[in-house]
Amino acid sequence: MRMDGQEESSNVEDRRGGGGGGGGGIGIGRGGLGVGSIVIALVAGWIFGINPLTVLGVLEGGGPAPQSAPAGPAPAPPAGDTEARFVSQVLRSTEQVWDELFVASGQRYQAPRLVLFRGSYPTACGRGEAAMGPFYCPGDEKVYIDLSFYDTMKRQLGAPGDFAQAYVIAHEVGHHVQHLLGLTERVDRMRGRVSQAQQNALSVRLELQADCFAGVWAHHSQRRGAGWRLEDGDIEEALNAASQIGDDRLQGRAGGAVRPETFTHGSSAQRVEWFKRGLQSGSVPGCNTFDGARL
C-alpha cells in the first residue's frame, strides 16, 4: 500500500522512552491466577482479540487493576521513525473515515489515542505487556502497540506486508467504534449471565465485527479523493493475516485438537469473510454480527 504524502495523526503518544516500562508486570499466583491463565490471556492478545488484561480479570473473578500512566505531555514519535509514521498515517486515515461515517449518522466520533510502548506499560485496564500483542483499552479509550509485534506477524504468524499491518490498527480501532456505540459494554453486561460457551460465542461476534469494521475503513478510505492507494497483493495480505489468526489455525498450530466451542475470535474462514463483507459493502449496519444469523 502507498501512504506517500498522507497526513499523520496528532493522537499518537510515543512512550517507548522508558516511562512506565519495565517491572510490575502481570503477577502469577495472585488470586489463584496460574501460569495456564497467563498463557490463555497472552494467546488472546496474539490473535488481536479482546484485551488480555480483561481476560485475566475474568479468570481472577474481578477486573484488572488500573495503572497510572506517566504524567506530563506525551511526546510525538521522532520524524525519522518510518514505522511510527506509517502507524500514524493509518490512524489518521481511520479518523477521517469514522468521523465522516459518524457525522452521516448524526453522531460525533471521538478518536482514540494510540500509544507506542516497549516491553510493558501501565493502562487503565491494567499493565500492558508486549507479549499480548496490540490491544484496545476502553477504560482510557486508547490503542496500545509494541511495534515489535509486526516482526512477530512476519516471522511467526506468516502475515507480512504493510496492509496486514494496517489491518491490525484498523481492527483495534474497530473495537473503539464498538465502545463508542455501546456494543462492548452491552456484551460485557451479558457475560455474567450466560455459560462459558455462550461467553465465547459473544466474544467471537465482537471480534468478527471488529474485522468487518476494519474492512469498512478500507472501503471508504479508498473512495476518499485523498486516500492512500491499494497496490497489487494488498488485499491478499490482509486476508492472509485474517486467516492466520483464526482460532482453528492457531489451535492446530499449537498441536492441539480444534474445538469450535472454545473459539473466542472465530475461525480463519469467518475472519476472512467478515473482513471481506466490510471491504466490499462499506456498510456499518452490514457488520451486525449479533443479529442471530449464522456466522
TrEMBL record:
Keyword rRNA-binding annotated: no
The UniProt record lists the keyword Transmembrane: yes
Predominant subcellular localization, coarse grouping: membrane
Xref: InterPro entries: Uncharacterised_pept_Zn_put (IPR007343)
Molecular function (Gene Ontology), one example: metallopeptidase activity
Disordered: annotated segments: 1-23
Segments of skewed composition (Acidic residues): 1-11
Membrane topology: Single-pass membrane protein
Pfam family name, one: Zn_peptidase
Alphabetical UniProt keywords: Hydrolase, Membrane, Metalloprotease, Protease, Transmembrane, Transmembrane helix
Compartments it resides in: Membrane
GO BP: any one term: proteolysis
GO cellular component: membrane
Name of the protein in its database record: YpfJ protein, zinc metalloprotease superfamily
Organism placement in taxonomy: Bacteria, Pseudomonadati, Pseudomonadota, Betaproteobacteria, Burkholderiales
